[in-house]
Amino acid sequence: MKRLILASVVAAVGLSACSSQRSKPAIDTPFESRFSTKVLNNDAKLFTYSMEMFKPTRRITSREEYMRYRPSTESVEALLDQKVTNILNFNRYCREGFTELDRLVLSDYAMVRGECNEAATEEDRKRFPNIKKARR
């Protein structure tokens, strides 16, 4: 199931990258994104979407080069909003919208936590099972 979600994220990211048109310059830095879900016992549906920019493979030697590499927080935030909308539309996790619970946007990392406006159904519980992480 986790692979299906990861494949869904990759597909949504790929499709949205092809169809997006922004007035600001596009972020050309590759990033890794993660989408996780949790359905609570009271039928609340939570999610977290995060994206982290990859660091350059070579050393940055000047301030100008650093500023050219580093995307603005505004462009990261716009990309984050677009990606959250795309993944939620693609997997139909929050069919009636969501309430944002938390947001963090930096130039190299961004994250949104939210709660869906609708309660979880039995189908939601089957499609988005809670996966327990192993403790180390």
Molecular structure report:
The protein has one domain (2-24, 31-127). Helix content is 37%, strand content 25%. The chain has 136 residues and is an alpha+beta fold. Helix 1 packs across helix 3. The chain has helices at 2-19, 63-69, 73-91, 122-127; strands spanning 31-39, 45-53, 98-105, 109-116. Mean pLDDT is 78; it is low at 4-11 and 15-26. 21% of the residues are buried. This is Lipoprotein. It comes from Paraferrimonas sedimenticola.
Describe, in short, the structure shown.
This protein is of the alpha+beta class and 136 residues long.
Q: What assembly state would you assign to the polypeptide chains in this entry?
A: single chain
Strand content: 25-35%
Side by side, the strands of the main sheet go 1-2-4-3
How many domains, in number, for the residues?
1
- H/E element order: HEEHHEEH
Tell me the total number of β-strands. 4
Principal-axis shape equals elongated
Helical region count?
Answer: 4
User: What is the C-alpha radius of gyration, as a whole number of Å?
Assistant: 17 Å
Biggest sheet character: 4 strands, antiparallel
**Average pLDDT for all residues:** 78
Low-confidence parts: 4-11, 15-26
Helix/strand structural class: alpha+beta
The end-to-end span amounts to 22 Å
Supply database-style keywords:
alpha+beta, 136 residues, 4 strands
Chart the SSEs and their pairings.
Blueprint: H1 2-19, E1 31-39, E2 45-53, H2 63-69, H3 73-91, E3 98-105, E4 109-116, H4 122-127
Antiparallel strand pairs: 1-2, 2-4, 3-4
